[in-house]
Amino acid sequence: MTPAELSRTVLHAVRRAVDAGQLSVTPPERVVVTPPGPGGCGDYATNVALQLARPAGRTPLGVAEVLRPYLVGADGITDVVVTGPGFLNISLYDTAPAALVEEILRRGTRYGHIEGPGGGPVEATGEATGDGPDGHPARRDTVRLHCPDEVRAVVVMDATARILRSQGVRVRTGCEGRPAPQWQDILGVDVDASEAAPAASAAAVLRPVPAPADPVPLGRDAARWALLHPAAHDLPRIGDEHLVQRESNPLFRVRYAHARSRALLRNASDLGFAPEPGAVTADAQSLLAALADHPRVLAAAARHRAPDRLARHLVTVADAALPLLPTVLPRGAEKPSAAHRARLALAEAAGTVLAGGLSLLGIDAPDHL
């Protein structure tokens, strides 16, 4: 069962409880499931009971206890445990890792993007205005992003617009001045209009701490990473540390993990075997959790106008993937097995998530480093 399928299963449980008269609420359009937080258990958790408690006129714990019987025994679910104030922690059959990898490989670099009813891209229709019922930005008219005429602000706005569009939001960007030509030519920013600062209620104004030096000499990829990886309230470091090809450089680790995943696919093809999602060993759990968390991170980055959340998440994925990559290919006279094919599929999924995330940040994901 994939996270998307589990989300639909939980939503179906809510609707069944409503139809049975056990909950008096309007079911949400979508339910978000994420890896369990501290104190949680199982494969996934959802806070849907906390979301429904107030409109239902009940405590979150009471709503969770109503929903639990509708989830226990559902196809693919082995157990449901209620923790904390009302979190539903869901354990799946052992096919969960394979299903997650299958979903990532099916969606490709669009994994985590919002899909329409037919499985294709959503037609962007509106502005993120706080949490919608599914945990993604609620939509109304086109969202307007605005920033001062400063290089970091323009790059942050550009990346924020890319992430918002991945979540089905139509975006228009504006800058108080005319961005320098090299910001577009070298850094790859795209601004719709040069305009005066709008009224506070008319646009989301992005004002990150300005860059202390000109990042353009670093080149597009290193410069954008230097400006996007720190949180907006942190002073970015503009220096050659973003260019070094060592593990001390987070951008290098992210791009190296992607390049290694692609190299493994080429090497496996030379050995005559291909990736095939399947069961993986316990040491892959941290990577699986990071991959499963990718849609939630994209939604949060859009909601909070914070591309740094995505950048840090990519570092988490890379750091979880790198120790596993040396175990993918057979060694010596060892023959390729189902375990090798499953690890190769997991490596391909990790590389896919890294490539998709870097693309949203406007950074290249090379197949060779």
Automatic annotation (TrEMBL):
SUPFAM superfamilies: Anticodon-binding domain of a subclass of class I aminoacyl-tRNA synthetases, Arginyl-tRNA synthetase (ArgRS), N-terminal 'additional' domain. It holds the Pfam family Arg_tRNA_synt_N. Residues 112-141 are annotated as: Disordered. Coiled coil: none annotated. It is an enzyme of class 6 (ligase). It catalyses: tRNA(Arg) + L-arginine + ATP = L-arginyl-tRNA(Arg) + AMP + diphosphate. SMART domains: Arg_tRNA_synt_N (SM01016), DALR_1 (SM00836). Keywords: ATP-binding, Ligase, Nucleotide-binding. This is arginine--tRNA ligase. It comes from Streptomyces viridiviolaceus.
